[in-house]
Amino acid sequence: MDALAVAVVAVVLVVPGVVLWRAVGGRRAFGTTAERATHAALHEASLASPPLRAGLTVDAATRSAGHLRALLGSAAVAMTDTERLLAWDGTGQHHAPVAHDLATDALQRGRTTVQRVTCGDPDCPVRSAVVCPLVLDDRVVGTLTAYDTDAGPGLVRAAGEVARWVSGQLELAELDESRSRLAEAQVRALRAQISPHFVYNALTAIASFVRTDPERARELLLEFADFTRYSSQTHGEFTTLAEELRSIDRYLLLERARFGERLQVVLRVAPEVLPVAVPDLCLQPLVENAVQHGLEHGRGRGTVTVVAEDDGAQCRITVEDDGVGSDPERIRAVLAGTADGDSIGMANVDARLRAVYGDDHGLLVETALGAGTKVTIRVPKWHAGVSAP
Amino acid sequence: MNTSFDVAAVAVVVVLTLGIGVYGLRLARTTSDFMVASRAVSPLWNASAIGGEYLSAASFLGVAGLVYAYGADMLWYPVGFVAGYLVLLLLVAAPLRRSGAYTVPDFAEARLGSAAVRRLASVLVVAIGWLYLVPQLQGAGLTLRATTGAPAWAGAVLVAVVVTVNVAGGGMRSATFVQAFQYWLKLTALSVPALFLLLAWQGDGAPDLAGPAGPVFRETTSVRLDGPVLVDVVERTVVVETDGRDRVLEPGPARLGPGTVVFPAGAEVPHVDRIERSTGDTWARPLSGAGGLEHPLYATYALVLATFLGTMGLPHVLVRFYTNPDGAAARRTTLVVLGLLGVFYLLPALYGALGRLYAPELLLTGRTDAVVLALPGALLGGVLGDLMEALLVAGAFAAFLSTSSGLLVSTAGVLVQDVLRGTVRDFRRATVVAAVVPLLLALAATSLPVSQVVGLAFAMAASTFCPLLVLGIWWRGLTPPGAAAGLVVGGGLSAAAVLSTLAGVADRGWPAALLAQPAAWTVPIAFAVMVGVSLATRSRVPAGVGRTMLRLHAPESLGLRR
What we know:
- The complex is a heterodimer.
- By secondary structure, chain A is an alpha+beta fold.
- Helix content of chain A is 51%, strand content 20%.
- Chain A is built from 11 helices and 12 strands.
- In chain A, a hairpin with a 5-residue loop joins strand 11 and strand 12 (373-380).
- Chain B is mostly helical.
- Chain B is built from 23 helices and 7 strands.
- In chain B, the strands form 3 sheets. In chain B, strands 5-2-7 form a 3-stranded antiparallel sheet.
- In chain B, helix 6 (104-112) runs parallel beside helix 19 (450-474) and helix 7 crosses helix 8.
- Chain B is globular and about 80 Å long.
- Chain B starts with a helix and ends in a 9-residue tail after the last helix.
- At the A-B interface, helix 1, helix 8, strand 7 and strand 9 of A face helix 1, helix 6, helix 7, helix 17 and helix 18 of B.
C-alpha cells in the first residue's frame, strides 16, 4: 500500500521502543576484570539489602541468604537469630538442624569462631564453619555462618566483613522501624490533639442554640460526636478523600455554628477524585489552620475555600483562606521543623506526605502578610503501597 | 449543501466543549453544601461519560462506511465494540476497581510489584494511545473536507489544537460531565437525522435494501472526483465528463476523473477497484464475502476476538472506572454502558444500508467513510437536509473531540509519570508532546485507512493488555518475567502484522487475511507466552500474591481487604 503510511506506523511503534530502551538504560559490557568483580559483589550486596531492611526474620533471611552465599563464594550459608535457625542456603542441607547449636558459642561470646564439622558423607563439602555474630547496638542478635571444605583465613575475613555489613543493614532496619513508629506516634498525637479550645467553643456554640433552636442543637451535638469519633478513632494509615472531606465538613459545620455569617465556606469537589486514597487526617489540620488564620485573629469575616480537582494521574487539593496570612519565612521555618507554634499540624502533614509520596509531594504554601494563605497538596491517584480500606 | 450551517455546527460544538470544560464544574459544584459537593458520580453519569469518550470517529462514521461497502459481516464491528464491555464486566471491571489502580501500568505494578513491567505497559499505553489518536484526527480532516471543502489538514489541526488547549488548560478536570454531555450529543446527532431519513425512505415507497440488483444511480447524478480513480465498469454506460462531451464506458476497468462525471439515472454504479461490486442480497447475507473480502469466516472470528478483548486495554476507557466508588458500582456502570452503546450502535448500520440506495456514488469515489454525511443531502435535500447534515457534522466533531481528549489525558498522564520522567515534568508540556506526535503522523499519512488503524489499536490492546489484565486478575501464577514476555511478544507480533499489511507484503489469500486481522493468532500466542514463561519462572511469583488476590476479589462490604 502506501509507503508513507508504513513509515508513519513504524515511527509510532519505534519511538516508544527507543524511549523504553533509554528508560531501561540499555546494558553494555564495561570495564576491566577487577571492575566487573567489584560490580558483581556490589550487585549481590544490593540484592541482599532490601529483604534485610525488614529486620532479622525468617523471610528476610531466606531471601538474602542466597545473595550472601554468592558474595562469600562458600559452599553453604546459614543464618540464625538467638533462638533458632532462620535460613540455610547451599549444599549439605542435612547439617541445617545442628546449625543453631554450632552458633551457641559465637552467640554467647560475641566473637567469630571457626569450627570443624563432622560428616559421614564423603562427598559433602561442608567440613568447617566460620560463625560470625551479628551485632546490633552491642547486643548479639544472631549469627551468620559460612560453611566450606576448608575455612582458610580468606573466608574468615570475608565472613567477618559480610557479617558486619549485615549488622549495618539490620541497624538501618531498626532505624526505619523507629522512624515509622515516630510517624505513627505523631498521627496519634495529632488525633489526641483536638484543641481544647475547639471543644470549648463548639460546646458553647451548641449551648447557645439549646433554648432557641433545640432541633439544631441536637443535630450539632450529633455532628460533634461523629467528629470526635472520626478524629480519635484508630483506622488505617490511609483513608479515601471522600471520608476525609466528610470529617472536614463536620468540623466546618461546628465552626459555622459558632461564627455564623462571619465564616463563609466554599467547597468545590470534582467527583472523579473522591475515591483517591490519602493519608489519614492530612487535610483537617490545614482546614483548622485556615479557619484560625482566616477568622480568629480578630478579623470580621472570612472565607475558607476547599477545592479538590482532577489533574490527570494526580489529584490536587487546595485549602485557602482570605485572612491575615503569615510571613513566608515563618512558614518555611515551621515546615523545616525549626519553629514551633500553632502550625505544628501543617509541618506534620508535610512530613507525612513526603514520607509516603516522595519529596515532590510536600505542601505548597502561598502566603504573605495580609494576603491570606493558600495551601496546595498533590496526591497521585495511585501509588505503590497506598490503599484506602 | 450549505457550508455555513456546517461551519456553525463545528463552532458550536467547539465552544460548548471548551465552555463546559472551563465553567461547567465551577457552576455545578461550587457550593457550601457538602452533600452536594461530594456526591459520587452515579452509574448513569459515569456510563454516559464512558460512552462519550469511547464513541469515536470509527463508531460515528467508520462503522456506517464499512457496512455500506462490505455488508452484513461488518455488523460485527458494532457488536464487538459493545460486547467488549461484556467481557470487561465479567472479568475485569470490579477487580480492577478494587485494586485501586488508575491506569494499566498502575495495575501492573500493584499486581506484580515490578517497575520493568510497569514501564513496558506505559510504553504500550503511549503506543496504543497514539495509534488511536491518528484516525481521530484524520477523521476530522475528512469530515471538514467532505462538508466544507476545506483542505484535509484543517480539520486535523483544528481538533488537535482545541483538544490540546482544553486538556492543557484544565478543561478535562470535570471530564465526567463533559464526556457525558458528548455521549448524549452524539446519540442525538445520529438518531434525529436517522428518524427523518427513515421517514423519507418510507415516503419513497420503502424500496428494497437487499434486492437482487447491484447499486444503481436512482437519478441523474454528477460525481466530483478530486483525482483520477480506477473503477470497474459493470455495464455499458454513457456519461458526460467535465468538458461537456459524452464518454462511453465499456464493461471492464476504466480510469475516471479528475473533474465532474455525470451519470444517467438507472445506471449501474462502477465501483472503485478496492471494493468489489455486490448485489443487494449478497450484501445482506453474512459470510458472503461482499465487497471482495476474502476468508470472511476467519476475518469474522479474528475481528470478534480483537474487539471483544481489545476494549479492556484501551487507555482512555479504563481510567473512567476509577471514578466509581467501589467494585459493585463499577459493575453497574459497565452494565449501563452496555445499554447506552447498544442503543447507539443500532444507528450506523441504518446509515450504511440507506447509503447503498441513496448515496451510491461513494462506492465510485471510494470515500465510504463519508456516507453518514452524504445521506441527508441526497435523501432529504433542502433546508432540512442542510440542518440534518450540520447536526451530523456536530456529532462527528463531538466524537473527535471527546475521544481525542480522553486519549490525550491518558497518554499525557503516562508520559509525564513514567516514560519521560525526568525530562518532562509538567503535565501541560506532556500534553503538547502527546498531541503533536499523532498530529504530525496524521498529516504525513493522509491515505492511511482509518478503520485499519483503529483495528490495529484494538488488536494491539487485545494482544497485550488483555492477557495482562485477565491473567493478572484470575491467575496467581503470573510472574513479572512472564508478563513482560507476553507484552513484548503480543505487542511485537500485532504491530508487525499490521505494518506488513500496510506495506502490502501479501495482497491476496490466507497471508493477507492473517495479517489484516492478526488478533486470532496474536492473542492466543500472547496468552501462551505469558502462561509459559510464568510457569518456567515459578520462583518469581510475587510474594504476597494471596493478599493482592484477596484485595482484588473480596467485595468491599466484607471488610476482608486489609
